[in-house]
Protein backbone atom coordinates (compact mmCIF):
# COMPACT_ATOMS: atom_id res chain seq x y z
CA UNK A 1 0.00 0.00 0.00
CA UNK A 2 1.36 3.46 -0.93
CA UNK A 3 1.92 6.16 1.63
CA UNK A 4 -0.89 8.19 0.10
CA UNK A 5 -3.33 5.31 0.35
CA UNK A 6 -2.21 4.60 3.90
CA UNK A 7 -2.81 8.20 4.91
CA UNK A 8 -6.21 8.13 3.22
CA UNK A 9 -7.20 4.92 5.00
CA UNK A 10 -6.12 6.28 8.38
CA UNK A 11 -8.01 9.51 7.73
CA UNK A 12 -11.15 7.66 6.64
CA UNK A 13 -11.02 5.32 9.65
CA UNK A 14 -10.46 8.19 12.05
CA UNK A 15 -13.30 10.16 10.49
CA UNK A 16 -15.64 7.17 10.71
CA UNK A 17 -14.68 6.52 14.31
CA UNK A 18 -15.20 10.17 15.13
CA UNK A 19 -18.64 10.16 13.54
CA UNK A 20 -19.59 6.96 15.39
CA UNK A 21 -18.37 8.40 18.67
CA UNK A 22 -20.24 11.61 17.99
CA UNK A 23 -23.42 9.68 17.20
CA UNK A 24 -23.03 7.64 20.38
CA UNK A 25 -22.57 10.78 22.46
CA UNK A 26 -25.58 12.38 20.80
CA UNK A 27 -27.59 9.23 21.45
CA UNK A 28 -26.62 9.20 25.10
CA UNK A 29 -27.48 12.87 25.34
CA UNK A 30 -30.93 12.18 23.87
CA UNK A 31 -31.53 9.33 26.34
CA UNK A 32 -30.46 11.48 29.28
CA UNK A 33 -32.85 14.23 28.16
CA UNK A 34 -35.66 11.73 27.72
CA UNK A 35 -35.01 10.21 31.14
CA UNK A 36 -35.12 13.66 32.73
CA UNK A 37 -38.36 14.44 30.89
CA UNK A 38 -39.91 11.15 32.03
CA UNK A 39 -38.96 11.87 35.65
CA UNK A 40 -40.61 15.29 35.40
CA UNK A 41 -43.79 13.81 33.92
CA UNK A 42 -44.01 10.95 36.42
CA UNK A 43 -42.92 12.94 39.47
CA UNK A 44 -43.71 11.58 42.93
CA UNK A 45 -47.44 12.19 43.40
CA UNK A 46 -47.67 9.04 45.56
CA UNK A 47 -44.83 10.03 47.88
CA UNK A 48 -42.18 7.52 48.88
CA UNK A 49 -43.98 5.53 51.56
CA UNK A 50 -46.41 2.72 50.79
CA UNK A 51 -49.49 2.19 52.91
CA UNK A 52 -49.08 -0.21 55.85
CA UNK A 53 -50.88 -3.48 55.20
CA UNK A 54 -49.15 -5.64 57.81
CA UNK A 55 -51.66 -7.50 59.96
CA UNK A 56 -53.32 -10.88 60.32
CA UNK A 57 -55.76 -11.19 57.43
CA UNK A 58 -58.90 -13.29 57.92
CA UNK A 59 -57.94 -13.73 61.56
CA UNK A 60 -61.10 -15.70 62.30
CA UNK A 61 -59.79 -18.57 60.18
CA UNK A 62 -56.99 -19.24 62.68
CA UNK A 63 -53.71 -21.18 62.23
CA UNK A 64 -52.04 -18.32 60.34
CA UNK A 65 -49.63 -18.70 57.45
CA UNK A 66 -46.68 -16.30 57.67
CA UNK A 67 -46.29 -14.39 54.40
CA UNK A 68 -43.27 -12.13 53.81
CA UNK A 69 -42.97 -9.48 51.07
CA UNK A 70 -39.50 -8.34 49.96
CA UNK A 71 -38.31 -6.04 47.21
CA UNK A 72 -39.21 -2.64 45.81
CA UNK A 73 -42.22 -0.33 45.60
CA UNK A 74 -44.37 -2.92 43.84
CA UNK A 75 -43.80 -5.43 46.64
CA UNK A 76 -44.44 -2.64 49.14
CA UNK A 77 -47.71 -1.74 47.42
CA UNK A 78 -47.05 1.90 46.45
CA UNK A 79 -50.02 3.21 44.49
CA UNK A 80 -52.68 1.37 46.49
CA UNK A 81 -55.03 3.57 48.50
CA UNK A 82 -56.13 0.94 51.02
CA UNK A 83 -54.24 -1.90 52.76
CA UNK A 84 -56.34 -4.57 51.07
CA UNK A 85 -55.38 -3.16 47.66
CA UNK A 86 -51.60 -3.60 48.10
CA UNK A 87 -49.84 -6.60 46.60
CA UNK A 88 -49.35 -8.04 50.10
CA UNK A 89 -52.97 -7.46 51.05
CA UNK A 90 -54.22 -9.01 47.82
CA UNK A 91 -51.97 -12.04 48.21
CA UNK A 92 -52.91 -12.48 51.85
CA UNK A 93 -56.64 -12.41 51.13
CA UNK A 94 -56.30 -14.73 48.14
CA UNK A 95 -54.14 -17.16 50.10
CA UNK A 96 -56.59 -17.17 53.01
CA UNK A 97 -59.48 -17.87 50.66
CA UNK A 98 -57.65 -20.76 48.99
CA UNK A 99 -56.40 -22.39 52.21
CA UNK A 100 -59.08 -21.55 54.77
CA UNK A 101 -56.33 -20.25 57.07
CA UNK A 102 -55.47 -16.81 58.37
CA UNK A 103 -52.44 -15.06 56.84
CA UNK A 104 -50.00 -13.00 58.88
CA UNK A 105 -48.45 -10.46 56.50
CA UNK A 106 -45.06 -8.85 57.07
CA UNK A 107 -43.72 -6.37 54.52
CA UNK A 108 -39.98 -5.71 54.51
CA UNK A 109 -40.04 -4.31 50.96
CA UNK A 110 -39.14 -0.64 50.62
CA UNK A 111 -39.84 1.94 47.94
CA UNK A 112 -36.79 2.59 45.77
CA UNK A 113 -35.01 -0.66 46.63
CA UNK A 114 -32.63 -2.39 44.27
CA UNK A 115 -31.70 -6.07 44.41
CA UNK A 116 -28.60 -5.23 46.45
CA UNK A 117 -30.89 -4.04 49.25
CA UNK A 118 -32.59 -7.41 49.75
CA UNK A 119 -29.84 -8.43 52.18
CA UNK A 120 -30.61 -5.44 54.43
CA UNK A 121 -34.33 -6.19 54.28
CA UNK A 122 -33.62 -9.73 55.45
CA UNK A 123 -31.19 -8.54 58.13
CA UNK A 124 -33.88 -6.25 59.50
CA UNK A 125 -36.25 -9.12 60.28
CA UNK A 126 -36.61 -10.34 63.89
CA UNK A 127 -34.03 -13.09 64.57
CA UNK A 128 -36.69 -15.66 65.41
CA UNK A 129 -38.94 -14.85 62.45
CA UNK A 130 -39.58 -17.78 60.12
CA UNK A 131 -41.89 -17.09 57.17
CA UNK A 132 -43.79 -19.95 55.62
CA UNK A 133 -43.57 -18.31 52.20
CA UNK A 134 -41.80 -15.22 50.88
CA UNK A 135 -42.63 -13.22 47.75
CA UNK A 136 -39.93 -11.08 46.12
CA UNK A 137 -40.58 -8.48 43.45
CA UNK A 138 -37.54 -6.39 42.50
CA UNK A 139 -35.63 -5.21 39.46
CA UNK A 140 -37.19 -2.06 38.07
CA UNK A 141 -34.80 0.21 39.97
CA UNK A 142 -31.86 -1.97 38.93
CA UNK A 143 -32.77 -1.24 35.31
CA UNK A 144 -33.30 2.50 35.74
CA UNK A 145 -30.05 2.78 37.72
CA UNK A 146 -28.18 0.63 35.17
CA UNK A 147 -27.03 -2.01 37.63
CA UNK A 148 -25.24 -4.85 35.81
CA UNK A 149 -27.58 -7.78 35.22
CA UNK A 150 -25.14 -10.28 36.72
CA UNK A 151 -24.90 -8.26 39.94
CA UNK A 152 -28.68 -7.99 40.26
CA UNK A 153 -29.16 -11.71 39.68
CA UNK A 154 -26.47 -12.57 42.21
CA UNK A 155 -28.08 -10.48 44.96
CA UNK A 156 -31.44 -12.07 44.22
CA UNK A 157 -30.02 -15.59 44.31
CA UNK A 158 -28.33 -14.89 47.66
CA UNK A 159 -31.61 -13.65 49.14
CA UNK A 160 -33.46 -16.73 47.91
CA UNK A 161 -30.86 -19.03 49.45
CA UNK A 162 -31.13 -17.25 52.82
CA UNK A 163 -34.90 -17.67 52.78
CA UNK A 164 -34.67 -21.31 51.75
CA UNK A 165 -32.25 -21.92 54.63
CA UNK A 166 -34.92 -20.49 56.92
CA UNK A 167 -37.33 -23.10 55.61
CA UNK A 168 -39.48 -20.71 53.58
CA UNK A 169 -41.01 -21.36 50.21
CA UNK A 170 -40.01 -18.54 47.87
CA UNK A 171 -41.73 -16.96 44.88
CA UNK A 172 -39.95 -14.39 42.70
CA UNK A 173 -41.95 -12.10 40.46
CA UNK A 174 -39.40 -11.20 37.79
CA UNK A 175 -38.84 -7.64 36.60
CA UNK A 176 -41.90 -6.19 34.84
CA UNK A 177 -41.62 -5.03 31.25
CA UNK A 178 -40.73 -1.34 31.44
CA UNK A 179 -41.92 -0.99 27.87
CA UNK A 180 -45.42 -0.63 29.31
CA UNK A 181 -44.56 2.79 30.80
CA UNK A 182 -46.26 5.22 28.41
CA UNK A 183 -44.82 8.42 30.00
CA UNK A 184 -41.34 7.25 28.95
CA UNK A 185 -40.65 8.41 25.37
CA UNK A 186 -39.07 6.41 22.59
CA UNK A 187 -36.37 5.21 22.08
CA UNK A 188 -35.78 5.18 25.84
CA UNK A 189 -38.89 3.06 26.41
CA UNK A 190 -37.72 0.42 23.92
CA UNK A 191 -34.31 0.28 25.57
CA UNK A 192 -35.96 -0.03 28.98
CA UNK A 193 -38.14 -2.84 27.68
CA UNK A 194 -35.15 -4.74 26.36
CA UNK A 195 -33.11 -4.22 29.54
CA UNK A 196 -35.99 -5.25 31.81
CA UNK A 197 -36.60 -8.42 29.82
CA UNK A 198 -32.92 -9.32 29.94
CA UNK A 199 -32.93 -8.86 33.70
CA UNK A 200 -36.13 -10.89 34.05
CA UNK A 201 -34.56 -13.85 32.26
CA UNK A 202 -31.48 -13.69 34.49
CA UNK A 203 -33.69 -13.41 37.59
CA UNK A 204 -35.70 -16.44 36.54
CA UNK A 205 -32.58 -18.55 36.07
CA UNK A 206 -31.09 -17.41 39.39
CA UNK A 207 -34.35 -17.92 41.29
CA UNK A 208 -35.07 -21.46 40.15
CA UNK A 209 -31.41 -22.46 40.61
CA UNK A 210 -31.59 -21.29 44.23
CA UNK A 211 -34.83 -23.14 44.92
CA UNK A 212 -37.51 -20.52 44.25
CA UNK A 213 -40.56 -20.47 42.05
CA UNK A 214 -40.39 -17.79 39.35
CA UNK A 215 -43.30 -15.89 37.81
CA UNK A 216 -42.73 -13.85 34.66
CA UNK A 217 -44.70 -10.69 35.35
CA UNK A 218 -44.01 -9.50 31.80
CA UNK A 219 -45.90 -12.54 30.47
CA UNK A 220 -48.65 -13.10 33.03
CA UNK A 221 -49.76 -9.50 33.64
CA UNK A 222 -47.71 -7.36 31.23
CA UNK A 223 -50.32 -7.51 28.43
CA UNK A 224 -52.99 -6.06 30.75
CA UNK A 225 -50.77 -3.09 31.59
CA UNK A 226 -49.96 -2.50 27.91
CA UNK A 227 -53.54 -2.69 26.61
CA UNK A 228 -55.32 -1.06 29.60
CA UNK A 229 -52.86 1.47 31.05
CA UNK A 230 -55.53 3.85 32.37
CA UNK A 231 -57.00 1.09 34.55
CA UNK A 232 -53.87 -0.82 35.50
CA UNK A 233 -51.63 2.09 36.50
CA UNK A 234 -52.08 4.43 39.43
CA UNK A 235 -51.94 8.23 39.48
CA UNK A 236 -48.24 8.43 38.57
CA UNK A 237 -48.70 6.10 35.54
CA UNK A 238 -45.72 4.14 36.83
CA UNK A 239 -46.92 2.02 39.75
CA UNK A 240 -49.90 -0.37 39.66
CA UNK A 241 -53.38 0.75 40.63
CA UNK A 242 -55.69 -1.26 42.87
CA UNK A 243 -56.74 -3.23 39.78
CA UNK A 244 -53.12 -3.63 38.73
CA UNK A 245 -52.24 -5.16 42.08
CA UNK A 246 -55.31 -7.36 41.96
CA UNK A 247 -54.25 -8.76 38.58
CA UNK A 248 -50.66 -9.21 39.75
CA UNK A 249 -51.62 -11.02 42.96
CA UNK A 250 -54.06 -13.28 41.14
CA UNK A 251 -51.35 -14.16 38.62
CA UNK A 252 -48.77 -14.95 41.30
CA UNK A 253 -51.05 -16.92 43.64
CA UNK A 254 -50.64 -20.32 41.90
CA UNK A 255 -46.90 -20.28 42.54
CA UNK A 256 -47.42 -19.11 46.13
CA UNK A 257 -49.64 -22.13 46.70
CA UNK A 258 -47.10 -24.38 44.96
CA UNK A 259 -44.29 -22.98 47.12
CA UNK A 260 -46.32 -23.98 50.18
CA UNK A 261 -46.77 -27.50 48.78
CA UNK A 262 -50.50 -26.94 48.27
CA UNK A 263 -50.56 -27.14 44.48
CA UNK A 264 -48.76 -29.30 41.95
CA UNK A 265 -49.46 -27.65 38.60
CA UNK A 266 -48.59 -24.08 37.64
CA UNK A 267 -49.81 -22.16 34.58
CA UNK A 268 -47.98 -20.51 31.70
CA UNK A 269 -45.39 -17.97 32.79
CA UNK A 270 -44.54 -19.85 36.00
CA UNK A 271 -41.44 -21.97 36.61
CA UNK A 272 -40.87 -24.41 39.42
CA UNK A 273 -37.48 -24.59 41.15
CA UNK A 274 -34.71 -26.79 39.84
**Structural category:** alpha/beta
Question: How far is it from the N-terminal to the C-terminal residue, by CA?
Answer: 59 Å
Radius of gyration in whole Å, from Cα?
22 Å
User: Taking all residues together, what is the mean pLDDT?
Assistant: 85
Task: Characterise the protein shown here.
With 274 residues, the protein is of the alpha/beta class. 51% of the residues lie in helices and 11% in strands. The chain has 11 helices and 7 strands. A 7-stranded mixed sheet has the order 1-3-2-4-5-6-7, sandwiched between helices. Helix 7 links the parallel strand 5 and strand 6. Helix 3 packs across helix 11 and helix 6 runs parallel beside helix 7 (188-210). The radius of gyration is 22 Å and the shape is globular. 45% of the residues are buried. Mean pLDDT is 85; it is low at 1-28 and 30-43.
List keywords for this structure.
274 residues; alpha/beta; 7-stranded mixed β-sheet; 11 helices; globular
What is shown here, in short?
The chain is 51% helix and 11% strand. The protein is α/β, with parallel strands linked by helices and 274 residues long. Residues 1-28 and 30-43 have low confidence and may be disordered.
Helices and strands, with pairings:
Elements: H1 3-42, E1 56-57, E2 65-71, H2 73-76, H3 87-99, E3 103-107, H4 118-123, E4 133-137, H5 140-144, H6 149-165, E5 169-173, H7 188-210, E6 213-215, H8 217-220, H9 222-227, H10 229-232, H11 242-259, E7 270-271
Helix pairs in contact: 3-11, 6-7
